Amino acid sequence: MASGDDSPIFEDDESPPYSLEKMTDLVAVWDVALSDGVHKIEFEHGTTSGKRVVYVDGKEEIRKEWMFKLVGKETFCVGAAKTKATINIDAVSGFAYEYTLEINGKSLKKYMENRSKTTNTWVLHLDGEDFRVVLEKDTMDVWCNGKKMETAGEFVDDGTETHFSVGNHDCYIKAVSSGKRKEGIIHTLIVDNREIPELLE
User: Where found, per UniProt (predicted)?
Assistant: First the structure.
């Protein structure tokens, strides 16, 4: 992953919306799960030409040619909420480089660990279609397949319910105290009166 001469390797069989010939300097690929979906970030670094190109979901966000300084950082936005992302380029030794991604000022690993504490994610299959539902616990915002949903909150005997619709399906997220301080509040997605298991990202 260090030199600019590496050939691009794509894990999935889908070919990207840009030509592979242009991707000869591809050095890093990250998948970042945000509330509005999972975003693919790709980074090209031409160590001989000084080129830096950042793609988000196949769309070119940054292109710089003939940069004489081969180390540094590139900052850009990802997703509907315009989340700040930074790629750090550091020299490891000689002509070897290390590429790290930060999201909102945190390493990707730390960001994802924190996100698992602040969000719940469910994936469901309805009417032949897949839906990814995300609850942001701090704001109680609900996202479905990249769109922020209109919700209605309701107090019930044992907690709260946040109601919304996916197509013709009635959905709600039930928030109930676990009774244990460390566990806090338990959020459960109910679709058409059946519980959907949570996806652990």
Answer: Cytoplasm
Question: Rounded CA gap, 76 and 84, in Å?
Answer: 6
- Between the alpha carbon of residue 25 and those of residues 18, 105, 186, 198, the distances in Å are 14, 26, 45, 38
Q: Are 95 and 3 in contact (CB under 8 A)?
A: yes
Q: Residue with structure tokens 């959907």?
A: 196
Which helix (H) or strand (E) element contains residue 151?
A: none
129-136 and 119-126 strand pairing? antiparallel
Check: CB of residue 196 under 8 Å from CB of residue 189: yes
Contact 111, 100 (CB under 8 A): no
CB neighbourhood size of 100 (10 A): 15
Look at residues 48, 80, 110 and tell me which one is the last residue of a structural domain: 110
Q: What is the pLDDT along the chain (201 residues), one digit of tens a residue?
A: 444 444 344 444 444 444 444 557 899 999 999 999 999 999 999 888 889 999 999 999 999 998 878 889 999 999 988 999 999 999 888 778 899 999 999 999 999 888 888 899 999 999 899 999 999 998 899 999 989 999 999 999 888 999 999 989 999 999 998 888 777 888 999 999 999 988 775
Range of the structural domain that residue 170 is part of: 116-196
What secondary structure does DSSP assign to 11-23, as a single string? Answer: SSSSPPSS-GGGG
152-156 and 159-166 strand pairing: antiparallel
Last residue of a domain, one of 77, 110, 143: 110
